[in-house]
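Researcher: Please generate the 3D structure of the following complex. Treat every line as part of one assembly.
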Amino acid sequence: MNIVVTGAAGFLGKKLVQALLAKGCLHNAHGQPQAIKRLTAIDIAPLEGIDDPRLSVQCGDISQPGSLETLIGEQTDSVFHLAAVVSGQAEQDFDLGMKINVDGARQIMERLRALPQCVRLVTTSSVAVFGGKLPEKVPDDQVWMPQSSYGTQKAMNDLLLSDYSRKGFLDGRSLRMPTIVVRPGKPNTAASSFASSIIREPLNGESATCPVSLATRLWLMSPARAVQALILGHELNSDALDKGRVINLCGLSVTVEEMLASLSRIHSAGVLSHIRYQADQTIANIVNSWPGDFHASYARQLGFQANESFDEMVREYLAESGAAESRC
Amino acid sequence: MNIVVTGAAGFLGKKLVQALLAKGCLHNAHGQPQAIKRLTAIDIAPLEGIDDPRLSVQCGDISQPGSLETLIGEQTDSVFHLAAVVSGQAEQDFDLGMKINVDGARQIMERLRALPQCVRLVTTSSVAVFGGKLPEKVPDDQVWMPQSSYGTQKAMNDLLLSDYSRKGFLDGRSLRMPTIVVRPGKPNTAASSFASSIIREPLNGESATCPVSLATRLWLMSPARAVQALILGHELNSDALDKGRVINLCGLSVTVEEMLASLSRIHSAGVLSHIRYQADQTIANIVNSWPGDFHASYARQLGFQANESFDEMVREYLAESGAAESRC
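Model: Done. Output below.
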């Protein structure tokens, strides 16, 4: 089996590459498990730190015409397309967002369409496709009304991937990811970046800024669950996808207040002193336009699973990062 | 006031151009009525048969890069973008549909974005954006799940127009048109073409084929109402658009059986002998994926109106076409 991962040097991409190599096999279109013989990891920056004879690290800009011809071909069985411009950046640089999130994704779909075999394509969408007046708990048949360019671009992809699948050009699955928390590393320009920062920085003894109100409700998923979901999204038989190719994943619905309560419970009450509360209306507007709770009935029917508690998510970060669990 | 109409040589485009020239003025962005001084009518084929000093007839392919620079400029106040590849053709020729319905529309939006003034853009979307499991009467917050490339492409535009409006690049309004019936002329490659044929051809003493079951429920609007809706869509103040830039228009919900009953009532029972019933699964699949009834609450709130009866729609066609009302 030949697998391609785009955005492979990103946080989730690298985790996925590691998980795929560790798993060693995936199901093919006929539902049979096949050993992964080759994994082509594409990103603008090279994926580093993984040494495996099956891995081929490639640098490339997926939005450049012709960039995919040599990387995706008749030998390709499946593509995990994760390369994207994040929400904050797509909002600031509209053209870059369109170029990567829409034209880049379309170019991948066009490349797959040109191949004789029907390639399985797993990609990520976002809860940012929702907005406007929403019920407290969003059903699967809720209309999309993105309040950001990122959400718009992801929704456009969802439509295109569904139509390419319907036409038999490829076998697509788009997973609407909850906000992934706790991300390691530094804050990025995603509007949701604070959701990791307010946990990660205090645990590392650093200060973090909370730009939204404590009552803000978020729909979250841990990195490990996200990688599990991407792999399950691939493994599902197409016959099971009777409600379409776009799946609102299961997540955990928590408020910022509950997140911080969990942080202080797991670490110490004093850890909260690292957090500064400074409203940022731009971020708050984007984040508040995203729903904080979903039914995700289709995802549950398909076997996707949410984290059980926010404590679990904090502990996953602690285990992965090696940050001290308690300094009190 | 300078107005541009694309797809101006099409059936609806020509009717709109005539209505705009007859009306003589439109409201500008400040809500003030302004005389229409120039109306640029763009289409691949030239718009013919209208003689008016305000009219400038232009031939051009909106999907060609650079084609719009001379046609839409700093003098442009409003654009009615109607140019599109119809549903049947977009399904048969995927690339052409993408080129005109997505890339062409995006090129128009990009042209407007490049201008210093905020141009009002009125365009048409379609009930073909809906599909999958639907309630009998579709609410405004129903998710889009197109079952055709045409519906996919229109939904992508709806998203883009909404985001361009949110960003202030233009002032867009996308009207989700019911199926327009009774169209004059010949059948076209729209999957809904039969809905006009089964009325028009019998009234003209010609034979027509009904490719769907009599129980098929359609969501219809007459050409005159459609033109009214396009103009109202332009005239609405942007402040009124509090539920977004995409509006599911009001229509009339009727079954094919009710349409034929109206035809025989207005003309004669014998007129139905012109209709052959021959199932076409491809057309039936597309048409049956479209909802036959909508709440259209937002449209009603904004002042849009549906036809009162199918009889009204048949009579509108008779009055416009001069076909004999009764030959019995």
